[in-house]
Amino acid sequence: MPGRTIKMLAVAVPAAVALAGCGGGPVRTGSAAIVGDHRITISTLGQAVEDWEREFRADPRANQLRSMNPPPADTDVQNALFGLVQIRLTDEAARRAGLRVSDGQVDMALNSLNRDPRRGPASSFARARGLPARYARDLARQAVIVGEVLRRNGDDGTGFRTLVSQTAQSLGVRINPRYGTFDPDRLVFGPVRTTLSSPGSGVG
Question: Distance of CA 3 to CAs 11, 66, 67, 94, 117, Å?
Answer without folding.
Answer: 13, 18, 20, 20, 11
